[in-house]
Write a structure and sequence with these properties.
561 residues, alpha/beta, Rossmann fold, Immunoglobulin-like, five-stranded mixed beta sheet, 12 helices, 26 strands, globular
Length: 561
C-alpha cells in the first residue's frame, strides 16, 4: 500500500497496520425535516440542467438548492462557491459536484482530447514515504473549506457523470435508495473483503484474529458480517479461483455497506498470489458482475489509488458507480493511502455512524475529517495522543497511537499523515444521502443461559410484522466444522473444502425463531444447543412495511450443571 523507503522490514511493519488498525465503516440513520433550514450548492453544467429537475424537486423539501455553473479553474470555481455560500438564505450543509473531472473526446482518434467538466484540486503530497509516493494528489476538499484553513466546513460529494444521462441515473438511484420500502435483512448486513496479507502464517493469523475482534466490538451486534479474506490459510478464503465470483455473489444479496481493506490500483484491487499464479481480486472489467437488486451498499475502499477520479481512465470507484447494479456511493483515496491515517478516519466515521447517528453520508465524512484535523492542533505530533471520545475509539486509541509511532520511520509526522487523509479521501456520491436507522427494540433474557436448555426472550413491538429472533456466536468466533487449510495444493477436494469454509464461516446462527406477530409484548423460547459454549448474542428483529426494529443482548453460555 505504501513504502517506508529504506528497507523492506519497515514496509512490512507499516502494511501490517492495515489489518490491525483499520476498522469498518457503516452508516445508518433516518433524517426528516419539516421545513427548509439548510442550503446545498449544486455545481452542474447548464446543458445538463434537465437532469437535475427530479432530484431538485425531491431535495427542495428539506434544502434551499443553489445552482452554479462550473468553470475550468478549480480556484475560480471555489470563489464562485464561496460567494454563493455567503449569499445563501440558510447555512450551507453540502456541495454537490455534478460531473466527472473530465471526459476523453474522440478516443479512437490520434487527436483524442481530455475535456474538463468539473475540475478538482491537484496539490502537493505532504507525506513522503518512499518511491511509491506520488508528488501530487487530487482532492475536492477545498470546495468545502470556507476559511482557508484546510479543515472543511461543508460536506462535499461528486457524482462522476460524463453526460446528462449518467447524471440523471445517479441522482435517480439516490432517490430510490431513500424511498425504498424494503425493510428486510439486507439492512442488517455488512460485507468486508480483505486483500492479501502475505506476512507469513503466524502474522496473518494474528492480524486476522485482531481484525475479527475489532469488527466484533466496533459494529453493533445486530449485524451479520459476510467476510472474504484473500489468504490461503484463512477460513474466510473461498476457492482462490472463484474468489471474485464468491465475494461479489455475497454483495449481490444487498447490504448497508461493503468495505475493502488492502492494496489497490487505479483500475483494480490487489492480486492474490496462489503458487505461480496471480489472481486479480477484482478489476474494473469484473464490476459488471455486480447486480445488487435490493440494498446497494456504500462502498468504502481502504486502499491506494482506487479513488483516482482525475485519471485519464475511469478509476475503480468510478467503475462501481457506472453500473446499474453497483454500490450507491463510494469513499476512496485518490493516491497512496497509509494504514494509520485510514484507521483514524475510519474510526471517526464509525463513531459518527453508530454512536452519534449523523443522518447523512456527507455529514458523517465531514464530521470525521474535522475531528481528526482539529484533534491534531496544538499537539506534539511525535508523541502519542490521549484517547478522546467514547466507544471503540476510546478503548483503542492509545494503543493505536503508540504502535503507529513505534512502527513509523524516524521523523514521520503522524499529525500530517492524519491530515493527508482528510485531503485524499473523497466521496463519490450524493453527500445528502440519508441512511435509515432501525427503531430500538430492547429485549430481555438470561445473560448466562445453560447449554441444552431453552432460553426465554421477551420484548415488545410497536407494530405488527415478522418477528425473527436468533442466537448467534459472537463475531470474533468461528462455527464448528471449519476445516483448516495449512498447505494449499490446489486439489479439487481442497478447493471444495475452502469454498465450504467460506460459506460457513460467516454463518454464526445457532438457533432461530420466526413468526408473524401483532403489536405488543412477545415471549419466545430459543433452544440453546447442547454443545454451545462461550460468548454469544441474541438478536431480535421485526420487519414490516415501512418499518423495522431491532434489539440485541450479549450472553455467555455455560455447560449444563
Amino acid at each position: 500500500m505504501n513504502s517506508t523507503g529504506n528497507n523492506g522490514q519497515e514496509l512490512i511493519l507499516k502494511n501490517c497496520l492495515v489489518w490491525i488498525l483499520v476498522v469498518v465503516l457503516s452508516c445508518f440513520g433516518h433524517y426528516a425535516m419539516s421545513e427548509v433550514t439548510s442550503s446545498v450548492i449544486v455545481v452542474c453544467p447548464k446543458a445538463w440542467g434537465d437532469s437535475l429537475d427530479e432530484w431538485v424537486n425531491y431535495r427542495s423539501q428539506d434544502y434551499q438548492i443553489i445552482q452554479v455553473e462550473p468553470v475550468t479553474s478549480p480556484l475560480n470555481l471555489r470563489r464562485i462557491i464561496l460567494k454563493a455560500a455567503g449569499q445563501a438564505k440558510f447555512p450551507v450543509a453540502a456541495v454537490l459536484l455534478c460531473g466527472d473531472v473530465g471526459a476523453v473526446e474522440n478516443l479512437s482518434s490520434e487527436k483524442a482530447k481530455f475535456t474538463t467538466i468539473i475540475p478538482t484540486f491537484e496539490i502537493e503530497t505532504k507525506v513522503k514515504l518512499g518511491t511509491f509516493t506520488t508528488p501530487t494528489l487530487a482532492t475536492d476538499l477545498y470546495y468545502g473549506d470556507l476559511d482557508n484553513d484546510e479543515c472543511p466546513e461543508l460536506a462535499v460529494g461528486r457524482l462522476p457523470a460524463k453526460n446528462a444521462d449518467d447524471l440523471s441515473r445517479m441522482l435517480r438511484r439516490s432517490i430510490d435508495y431513500e424511498q425504498s420500502q424494503s425493510f428486510g435483512p439486507w439492512r442488517d448486513r455488512i460485507h468486508a473483503t480483505a486483500g492479501v496479507g502475505g506476512f507469513g502464517v503466524l502474522a496473518d493469523t494474528a492480524i486476522e484474529s485482531v481484525a475479527r475482534r475489532l469488527l466484533s466490538e466496533g459494529i453493533p451486534d445486530r449485524f451479520q458480517l459476510n467476510m472474504t479474506y484473500a489468504s490461503l490459510t484463512s477460513p474466510y478464503c473461498p476457492d482462490p479461483f472463484s474468489l471474485t465470483r464468491s465475494f461479489i455473489g455475497k454483495i449481490n444479496e444487498g447490504g448497508l455497506f461493503w468495505v475493502y481493506i488492502g492494496h489497490g490500483g487505479v483500475d483494480r484491487l490487489d492480486d492474490f498470489i496462489v503458487g505461480r499464479e496471480s489472481i486479480p481480486i477484482c478489476l474494473t472489467e469484473h464490476v459488471s458482475q455486480f447486480d445488487i437488486q435490493d440494498g446497494p451498499p456504500i462502498a468504502v475502499m481502504l486502499a491506494c489509488f482506487t479513488g483516482a477520479f482525475d485519471a485519464r481512465v475511469d478509476c475503480f470507484a468510478e467503475a462501481l458507480l457506472a453500473i446499474k447494479g453497483g454500490p450507491i456511493a463510494v469513499i476512496a483515496g485518490s493516491r497512496v493511502t497509509m494504514p494509520y491515517g485510514l484507521s483514524q478516519l475510519s474510526t471517526e466515521m464509525m463513531d459518527g455512524c453508530f454512536r452519534d447517528q449523523i443522518p447523512t453520508l456527507g455529514g458523517i465524512m465531514l464530521n470525521a475529517k474535522r475531528n481528526i484535523w482539529k484533534r491534531s492542533e496544538s499537539v506534539d505530533s511525535n508523541q502519542p495522543q490521549a484517547s478522546v471520545g467514547g466507544g471503540l475509539r476510546a478503548r483503542q486509541q492509545s494503543m493505536i497511537e503508540q504502535m503507529a509511532a513505534a512502527l513509523s520511520p524516524e521523523g514521520h509526522d503522524l499529525t500530517e499523515e492524519r491530515r493527508e487523509h482528510v485531503r485524499l479521501m473523497n466521496l463519490l456520491g450524493d453527500p445528502l444521502l440519508r441512511i435509515k436507522h432501525p427503531v430500538s427494540m430492547p429485549i430481555q433474557c438470561e445473560v448466562e443461559p445453560q447449554a441444552g436448555k431453552p432460553l426465554r426472550v421477551t420484548g415488545s413491538s410497536l407494530r405488527p410484522g415478522k418477528l425473527k429472533i436468533e442466537l448467534t456466536l459472537s463475531r470474533d468466533r468461528l462455527p464448528d466444522g471449519i476445516r483448516s487449510v495449512n498447505d494449499f495444493q490446489g486439489t479439487e477436494d481442497q478447493r471444495k473444502s475452502m469454498q465450504d469454509n467460506h460459506s460457513r464461516a460467516s454463518d454464526l446462527v445457532l438457533s432461530k425463531f420466526e413468526q408473524e406477530i401483532a403489536p405488543g409484548e412477545f415471549t419466545v423460547e430459543l433452544q440453546v444447543p447442547s454443545d454451545c459454549r462461550g460468548r454469544c448474542v441474541v438478536r431480535a428483529f421485526v420487519y414490516s412495511n415501512n418499518h423495522w426494529a431491532s434489539g440485541s443482548q450479549r450472553v455467555n453460555v455455560h455447560r449444563t450443571k
